[in-house]
Amino acid sequence: MSSVTFETQRTALADVVAIPVTPFAEDGTVDQGAHRALLRRLLDGGITTLTPNGNTGEFYALTPEERRLVTELTMDEVGDRAVVLVGVGHDVPTAVASAEHAREAGAQMVMVHQPVHPYVSQRGWVDYHRSIAEAVPELGVVPYIRNAQLTGERLAELADACPNVIGVKYAVPDAARFAAFARDAGLERFVWVAGLAEPYAPSYFSAGATGFTSGLVNVAPAVSLNMIEALRSGDFPAAMKVWEQIRRFEELRAANGSANNVTVVKEALASLGLCLRDVRAPSKQLPEEERSEVAAIVAGWSI
Q1: pLDDT tens track for 25-39
Q2: Residue 145 host element (H or E)
Q3: What does the alpha-carbon distance between residue 188 and residue 182 come to, in Å, rounded to a whole number?
């Protein structure tokens, strides 16, 4: 185990980590043709790290069979053009089975969704992730952290037991807390991915992140790549120019507790004729008056 360095995976996390949408057909099933076309568009746009079954992919609204389908479609379409980080979660046996399926499908990493159980102890968090990481020692494992109570010491404890825990998707909306957490866990030990996408990327990069997740990238890969290029070169004014460009789009996604996070992305894709705007409960389509605003924002980007 100690001989595995996960360099390819670590490099892939220090980038734009795309969270593809899961498009639905008229009959409500996964639209496999549209799904493949959207994946190709990301790859052709220069994206090299993909997370199928992420929150922007409506992970919690998919059946177990659909989650496997999304993983398999992604692996088949991607081939060797990108590194794939498959989202897994729910109860431990389900998460382990999903991680093992990801390995069989050829994925190189899994992202473990923040446990949604209302009662999460810090040591229980370690146990949960350890069960998954130990089941797939060959895969890089990336915890998705949204729990502001969790300490960096617990992450270090997890990685002591499981050396394949190599990166973190940190999504607590507090840049100072992120800076402290990363240093308590080990700034150089993990690849730190800003898990709240482009709006938080500049502040998190200033504190040590080297990658960020993106749902917006489904719509405009070039915009996300412009931001990471600016951040990599330390050009924060240029990064903030991109931030200003996407601000309203991301505000619409974040409003009302991120109620329309996926909806706005799918509305933008629908305005470009790339997939239907359909989302599953508990998401809901945008009202008419907001649809035109999303289309206008997207029309102003260089796509």
Answers
A1: 999 999 999 999 999
A2: strand 140-145
A3: 9
